[in-house]
Amino acid sequence: MNVFSSTPELDLNALFYHASIGIMVADEEGNIIKANPFLLKMFGYELDELAGNKIEVLIPTRYHSAHVGKRTNYMVQPEKRLMGYGAEFEAIKKDGEIFAVEVSLSPYQQHDKKYTTAFVNDITLRKKAEAELLEVKARDLIMEINLSREKQLNELKTKFVSMASHEFRIPLSAILSSSYLISQYGQIGNFEQQEKHVNKIKNSVAVLTGILNNFLSIEKIEEGKIEPRIAEVAIEDYLTNITEEMSPITSPGQAVIYTHTGESTIYTDIVLLRHIVTNLLSNAVKFSPKDKNVYLYSDCRESEIEIRVVDQGIGIPAEAQANIFDRFFRASNSGNVQGTGLGLSIIASYVKLLKGSIEFESEEGKGTTFVVRFDRFNE
Q: What CATH number does the domain containing 80 carry?
């Protein structure tokens, strides 16, 4: 049964005049022909104030030029734009208040003239609700990040306690036993053995100092307290001195061999450079057999500086290589070699501060090559 067949007359104008959505009709030149009461109230106009005006009167001035172009293109190839899929715009009321609207369009043709009916919905409340939802999501995300950070910090603290209980115990035990033996050898006048144990104490103190310095470095990096101080340095002489400083920690039959190519003077932060090179060399020495040399190469090119540290040591297992720069990470084959797992993490941060990059190649049982590259700094 057709429900409209028994209706003697259906006044479709009632839909237009009593609809609870803004409705406007415009011709192909963009002139407003008709507007329903809901739209007039929405914008604060009387019909005679809008009729005959371009539809741009309802859009903020800064969008007029762009909208005219879009309107012209639309009339060339008009198509329906359904509500819910309509475009969102900023509209302007008669009193100058700007608010958000969604506009859907329905083109039609009558008496060889093109017209477009626009359905306009005030979405101010919806936009406000969306903004509030985004704000809630942002707060939740910040809370989630803070919780994640707190979890990471707790994990770091746990790892630190675990590492410290082991790494601090070894040098402290050495200091305690050497102190006792110094006293014993002093009573019998064995100065050679006394000197030996004094050196053990010095080495143990150096180890403890290094561990503490690593933690201080992490704190400074986290707080952004480290700023590179660029200065001129004779790179070949500087790195030669560092290799000589490595001699006390090398094993019998082992040496650090240094080769330089390119310019001899560069500009960089010598303190950060020292940390990077010293850490890479000490690792190479520690993880290399007694009779295997460690090699240091520096190459000053036109646009960058490259430093390579090459060893023939135990290498890094393939499954560990993705985590080698993580804090407290130590490869499974590091065994009883002393270390905190912090050094590579710290130097990776130092390399970043120098606008450089660090990469490596390694094969377990055959050795490792670390390559550090820096941009050339100007004076």
A: 3.30.450.20
**pLDDT tier at 249 (50, 70, 90 boundaries)?**
confident
Nearest by Cα to 354 from 282, 302, 287, 305: 305
Question: Domain containing 170: what range?
Answer: 129-222
Tokens linked to 213: 């310095």
Q: Is the residue at 8 inside a domain? A: no
32: β partners:
26
- pLDDT beyond 80 at 332: no
Q: What distance in Å separates the CA atoms of residue 88 and residue 103, rounded to the nearest whole number?
A: 6
Looking at residue 346, its pLDDT comes to 81
Q: What is the mean pLDDT of the chain?
A: 82
Does residue 317 sit within a domain? yes
β 294-300/256-262 pair status: parallel
Which of 101, 117, 110 shows the shortest CA–CA distance to 58?
101
CB 128 within 8 Å of CB 38: no
Of 55, 126, 125, 66, which Cα lies nearest the Cα of 92?
A: 55
Q: Per-residue pLDDT tens for 116-172?
A: 999 999 999 998 998 899 999 999 888 888 888 777 766 766 666 665 655 566 567
For 119, counting Cβ atoms within 10 Å of its Cβ (0-12 exposed, 13-18 middle, 19+ buried), the class is buried
Q: From CA 88, how far away is CA 69, in angstroms rounded? A: 17
Contact 226, 264 (CB under 8 A): no
Closest by CA position to 375, among listed 354, 358, 359:
354
Query: For the chain, where are the alpha helices, taking DSSP H only?
Result: 13-18, 37-43, 47-50, 64-76, 124-167, 169-188, 191-222, 235-245, 270-286, 343-353
Domain membership of residue 1 (yes or no) is no
Residue 7 lies in a domain: no
Same domain, 267 and 214: no
